[in-house]
Amino acid sequence: MEFIKKNIVLVIVLGLSLLGTIFLIYMVFIKHSGMSEMMHNVEKMKVDIERLNKSKPAPCDQNLEWINEDKKIFKERCTNLRLVFGHPFLKPLQDFAKKLGTTAPELKVSFEQFWIDCLAKDNEMKSRDILRDFLKKFDTAKLTNALMEFKTDCQKLTSETIEQGEVLSYLLMALGVPRNMSQIKCKQYVGIMQKALVDKLDPPKREVEGSTSAAKEKKDKKDKKDETIVRGKVTLDNSVRSFTFTEYQSRLPVKENIPYIIRHLMLIDDLMNRIKVSGVSRVESLTRIGGLHGSVDKGFLKFRYKLTLIGELENLRKFINNLLNAYKDNRVYLIKDITIEKLAREASKIITSEGSPRSSSSETSGMTPEQLAREMDKPYYERKGYGKPVISASMCKMEIEIDYVIYVASELKRN
After folding, report:
1. What does the angle CA 189 – CA 182 – CA 199 come to, to the nearest 5 degrees?
2. Cα four-point dihedral sign 141, 329, 171, 76
3. Could you say which DSSP state residue 209 is in?
4. Partners of 401 in the β-ladder
5. How many Cα atoms sit within 13 Å of 318 on the Cβ side?
6. Intervals of the chain under pLDDT 50
């Protein structure tokens, strides 16, 4: 006690220090506990985040609604995109459906269900009979008018003359049923298409009846009127005129191959039409690569062809652009390989044997022989027309390899 009394200040200081130390120890303990709890929470959050990253979106009502809306939009856009691949009769089908008071997608869905129901009852029922029964629900007058318009629209897309009895075959194709026919009819179809394509591309020369000047004058006028037809003529090598189907001149096609034969000829028909409208001069060769059945990958059927074409460079470019823009007509061509070479050296046409440029014929056409002789005695760089650009059409040979792509996964088939 005596010590405390004598050292009161020291005792007070030591007491306060002790209290401070106890307080600090308490604070350290509290903070350490908080830190430990936070570290534990961090580890727990890491586990939760990892679990959430691996889990699917929570199936709450709002999420389910959004998911279903997105699925519907995605499915619709995928369907529309797939129609670009090898479905050229979509536009005629859309007009046909419109005249019946419906839409093409609704018509296809309705027919697909009807097709399934009919085959469930009778799997041997003919495709045309199924279609006829399906069309009975529509107004007769509207149906007749719609079929006539459909035939007219389809005729613009094929070289085959569509007879009245074949309209339903084209409508079935538009609805997703691959076209088929008997072996004899298929052989006839091959011959008809070969002749139609040859006549379209390389038509025979018309003979003038009589030899009078009036008849010749009449022919000249007609030729002038048909100038666009003459310009569009495409010369075909003899090996091309069968369009890769030489074997069916002497035998019938195998039944299983008939749908593929029809697809190939429809493809070649479109290909030759694009060659013609592009102004290509000659088809040297046409080769089918990879067999008649092509190759199928993820629901897409691909046919590969190799062509050798001759024409002016500008027209060959037009043909390439025509292929690239074919998707607008619901056809897709993929260019796999292409080579172009010039057939003649254009420079040789404007260079003399001495190596100096020739004078422009347009600059010297009005000169007298004496003036022309004096002009030719000048150095070539002093002659009239020197330095003007010389433009000439260059004939080229192009080898091109292409894939034609058709979406077949959604086609209607028999079990």
Report:
1. 0
2. negative
3. S
4. 306, 337
5. 15
6. 207-212, 222-231, 346-361, 390-392
pLDDT for res 37: 86
**3-class secondary-structure state, position 242:** coil
What is the C-alpha to C-alpha distance for residues 130 and 410, in angstroms, rounded to an integer?
18
Reading the block at residue 229, the tokens are: 């037809």
DSSP 327-361: GGGT-EEEEEEEEEEESS-GGGGTB-TTSPBPPPH
Contacts 24+ apart (CB under 8 A), 159-168: 159/193, 159/196, 159/197, 159/200, 159/269, 159/273, 160/189, 160/192, 160/193, 160/196, 160/269, 161/192, 161/196, 168/128, 168/131, 168/132
CA dist 244 and 180 (Å) reads 20
Spatial separation of the C-alpha atoms in residues 155 and 168, rounded to whole Å = 13
Other CB atoms closer than 10 Å to residue 302's CB: what's the count?
17
The CA-atom distances, in angstroms, between 305 and each of 335, 376, 408 are 10, 53, 19
Nearest to 307 by CA among 344, 330, 282: 282
SS3 for 98-149 is HHCCCCHHHHHHHHHHHHHHHHHHCCCCCHHHHHHHHHCCCCHHHHHHHHHH
Cα 269 to Cα 169, 213, 344, distances in angstroms: 17, 39, 31
Residue 335 has which token pair? 């260019």
pLDDT score at 345 = 54
Q: For 246, which DSSP code?
A: -
Residue 401 in 3-state DSSP? Answer: strand
Confirm whether pTM is higher than 0.85: no
CA distance 198 to 207: 18
Torsion over CA: 394, 306, 270, 161 (sign) = positive
Distance CA 399, CA 380 (A): 39
pLDDT score, position 217:
56
End-to-end CA distance of the chain: 112
Helices 140-155 and 90-99, packing angle to 10 deg: 160
At residue 243, the pLDDT reads: 94
- Sign of the alpha-carbon dihedral angle for 248, 254, 255, 259: negative
Cβ 273 vs Cβ 232: under 8 Å = no
The residues, ordered by sequence, that sit 6+ positions from 45 with a Cβ below 8 Å of its Cβ are none
